[in-house]
Design a protein that fits this description.
This protein has 183 residues and is α/β, with parallel strands linked by helices. Helix content is 30%, strand content 19%. The protein contains six helices and seven strands, in the order βαβαβαββαβαβα. It is elongated and about 50 Å long.
Length: 183
């Protein structure tokens, strides 16, 4: 299984590290899951049989590979990872969107995804430049919420507004200023 290497933004796949993000990937986006790799220590978890059953149900390889996981895992206590194809999902014109302008921190982005999903907002527009939402740090911080969201990137806020000109916009800015595009 030595075919997996540290995540790089240009890769066509990414990794969901941990039991809960893996369960979320297998539950909400099994079509994108390539394989699940786990360490022998993962057998201590009650989640492992659930993950194994989901892998069997969807024909996803379920492989014990301590060496690869120890090489790629972000910490010593990461016992499982799901390899998934990067997702790209369009935003629905009839749904509310959360528009994030240039979020730059992977952890914060993942936390925002998790919070948005908790509030029932399932469509998120990312205005570039922005953090890579496929980065394993963002996926892990999202606790797998990324697999339940429609997320689309836009080069500029104007590009987003051109596609969704009739969506109401409620900007929140820390300094209370209004940008030119709101005037």
């Amino acid at each position: 299984m030595g075919m997996y290497k540290k995540y790089a933004p240009q890769d066509t796949h990414s990794y969901a590290f941990g039991f809960f993000p893996s369960l979320e990937a297998l539950t909400h986006a099994p079509h994108a899951c390539r394989a699940v790799l786990y360490e022998a220590r993962a057998h201590k978890s009650d989640a492992l049989p659930k993950i194994h059953a989901l892998c069997e149900a969807h024909g996803i390889p379920f492989i014990q590979d301590d060496k690869t996981l120890s090489k790629l895992a972000p910490s010593e206590n990461t016992f499982i990872m799901t390899v998934f194809d990067k997702l790209s999902t369009p935003l629905a014109p009839d749904k509310n969107h959360l528009v994030l302008v240039s979020p730059s921190d992977m952890g914060n982005l993942g936390t925002i995804f998790r919070t948005a999903l908790g509030f029932g907002v399932g469509h998120i527009a990312l205005i570039q430049p922005c953090a890579d939402y496929h980065d394993p740090r963002a996926v892990r911080a999202s606790m797998g919420a990324v697999f339940s969201l429609n997320i689309a990137k836009y080069s500029t806020f104007e590009a987003y507004r051109a596609q969704f000109p009739h969506h109401n916009a409620y900007p929140l800015m820390t300094d209370g200023a209004c940008a030119d595009f709101w005037q």
